[in-house]
Each structure stands twice: as C-alpha cells, then as structure tokens.
Amino acid sequence: MMYYIIIPAHNEEAFIAKTLNSILHQTLAPKKVIIVNDNSTDGTETIIDSFTDKHSIFKKVNTTSSTKHMPGSKVINAFTKGLDVLDNKYDFIVKLDADIILPENYFEKIAGIFKSDKTVGIAGGFAYEEDKNGNWKLNHPMNKDHVRGAFKAYRKSCFKSINGLRSAMGWDTVDELLTQYNNYTIYTDTSLKVKHLRPTGNAYNKQAKLLQGKAMYAMRYGFVISCIASLKMGLKQKKAAVFFDNLSGYSSAKKEKLPFLVTPKEGNFIRNLRWKNIKSKLF
Which residues form the Glycosyltransferase 2-like domain (predicted)? Predict the structure, then answer.
C-alpha cells in the first residue's frame, strides 16, 4: 500500500531528526513525507533541509502561524498546508508529530491492518513516554480504542468521508466519532510501541485550559455527557481544576454561541454513541 506522511513542526530541533530517521528505517517506506515548518525560530528548518537535501521522499513546506502552542488549531492548520501540496494517489495518509520515534515495522503493520479489514478507517499503535528513571511507560487514554493524535493513519476513503481534520481542540476525538458515523472502525495495535519524546501537553499555552470544554460543546456532547467526560478527565489527571475548567469552557462556548464542529444529525449519533459507551462501562 502507498501512503503519505504530513509532519507539522514548530521548534522541534531537539526531536525532529530522530523522527525523520525512524521514517527512513521503515520496512515499508512512504511515498512522500511533507514536513511543514510552522514559524520555527530555532534550528528546526536547518535540520529539515539536511534531510530534504539527501532524501527525495522528504519535502519542506514553510508556513507562518501563531507562535503559541494552542491545541488543535495550530497543528491542524499546518497539517492542512501540507495536505494542499499532495495528490490523491495514496491508500492511507498519516498525521505525525515531530517528536516521535516509530518502530521499524510500524507502517508495514498499519498497511496490513488496512489490507486485512476494509472497514478500518483509522489505525495506530500506543504511546510510550520516558519516566525520570529512563523507563518507557505506556501513556494512553482510558479508552484503548483511541489512536493518539500524534500518530494517526487514515484510510483514504475514510479521510474523505469525514472531510479531513477539524482545525479546533478536540480534532482527534471528532475524527474518530465521525469515522464511526460513516460506518468505519478504529483499530489499535498494542504491539506497536511508539516513543513519544515530549510528554503530552507540555508545550500547550496556559490559555488552552478552557478549550477542552469548548470542544465538548462544539461536538454537541450536551451538558450531562460533558460533565461525565470532564469528571473522568479530572480523576485521571488527579486535578479537580480540570473538571471546573472544562465546564467553564463549555458554558463560555454556549454563551458565545460558538460554531459547532458537527451537524445536528452527527451530533445525535455522537451523543447516542457516548451514552452507549458510558452504559457499557457501568453495567
């Protein structure tokens, strides 16, 4: 199977060479890799150039957006810039962060997943992060059927069905919800252990704390489901502030009448799916 990779990169000089080298060592090589240098002010671009000069699969795209690491909008805007320079001659497309080390057989196994089951729309492995003792430990949401936004692979037909990725906080949740709405499934492979070099959220701007709740509103969760989801997040992170920040963000979005990310019909499907998942864990 043929596949493309798009890598949004902002000030990634400490990590990006490791990411690009892990791509070069794949047992199934990509057809094209677009690296979107998004307003980097460090040595990121120089490192990218050293790879594009030596390896024809790499291509650089420069773009200028906000210097702030606001979840969702910045990274997906950069991803979209990369998407704009690609054709449709691929079987699956990958959104990859610039602080990732992939196992050598990663995309060979992803291709095998897509080949063996035509209903799979999104596939991926699991993230491992290094602790202070140098041990790589699993860092994954409670939902094991979720593929982390740092390394998501999309079957082309599914990617087209969900109309690409939303430029907003929650993009890597709404894509999976819409994948299921369009009768595709999500596949996670526990054997694919991905090294995530920067712990999740370390680069996020402090202004982002209300965005999760705003995303729940935009995905048409409704208040009750948003409360339950926020409570779970707060308990997982052991931070009561997460619960209150989420609800504050939800209320703010409702008051401001912010635009929704999904249609009313899609929202109804999402709420029913969320209730189904909640009930399955309670009973």
Answer: 5-147
Q: How many whole angstroms separate alpha carbon 260 and alpha carbon 212?
A: 14
236: number of CA atoms within 13 Å, CB side?
A: 11
* Cα separation, 282 vs 279, whole angstroms: 5
Which uninterrupted H or E stretch holds 138? strand 136-138
How many CB atoms are closer than 10 A to CB 30?
21
Residues in the chain, pLDDT under 70? 66-72, 141-142, 199-208, 283
Rg (CA), the chain: 19
Q: Do the strands 120-130 and 151-155 form a parallel or antiparallel pair, or are they unpaired? A: antiparallel
Backbone angles phi, psi at 96, to 5 degrees: -125, 135
Residue-range domains of the chain with CATH: 3-196 (3.90.550.10), 207-282 (no CATH)
Q: What is the pTM of this model?
A: 0.89
